[in-house]
Structure to design on (170 residues):
């Protein structure tokens, strides 16, 4: 298998995850689902469990909040869902320090993609709307935008989801 990075971006509920899952299953009978979300509360825990059940037994589920490269993913098709939640974990742990968070994320991303795997990466375009009046939200939007650019530059393909339709960007 040739190493490949496919980035899928778009707005909330644009169909990113559904498209990414279909793509992963078209490339492998047993893909890896690399989930980055923290469990924030009981409702969120139930939601995560429901998502795992809905995905089915063909998936290898790995939950990892920050250190994605600790997992040996060589030779696998890996769906990383999602960059936004992954970045949130660094951002909150680093007290909303954008530059430190961005550097840590870039370093960890580079370690991750050093593995010989096919990566399908889901992220959000959160900076396409109105600029937030909240300072922390503006900082996070900057972090997310810069991280998306970093990943897109390294990606072999980039898709933008619009109303469930993938548009090839790169």
């Amino acid at each position: 298998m040739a190493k490949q990075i496919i980035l899928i971006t778009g707005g909330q509920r644009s169909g990113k995850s559904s498209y990414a899952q279909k793509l992963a299953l078209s490339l492998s009978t047993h893909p890896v689902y690399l989930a980055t979300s923290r469990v924030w509360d009981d409702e969120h825990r139930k939601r995560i469990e429901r998502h795992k059940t809905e995905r089915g037994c063909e998936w290898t589920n790995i939950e990892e909040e920050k250190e994605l490269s600790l997992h040996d993913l060589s030779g696998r098709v890996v769906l990383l869902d999602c960059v936004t939640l992954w970045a949130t974990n660094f951002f909150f742990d680093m007290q909303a320090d954008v530059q430190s968070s961005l550097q840590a994320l870039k370093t960890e991303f580079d370690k991750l993609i050093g593995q010989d795997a096919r990566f399908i990466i889901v992220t959000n375009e959160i900076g396409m709307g109105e600029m937030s009046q909240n300072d922390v939200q503006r900082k996070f939007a900057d972090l997310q935008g810069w991280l998306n650019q970093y990943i897109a530059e390294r990606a072999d393909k980039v898709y933008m989801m619009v109303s469930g339709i993938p548009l090839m960007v790169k």
User: Anything to note?
Assistant: Residues 4-168 form a domain with the Rossmann fold fold (CATH 3.40.50.300).
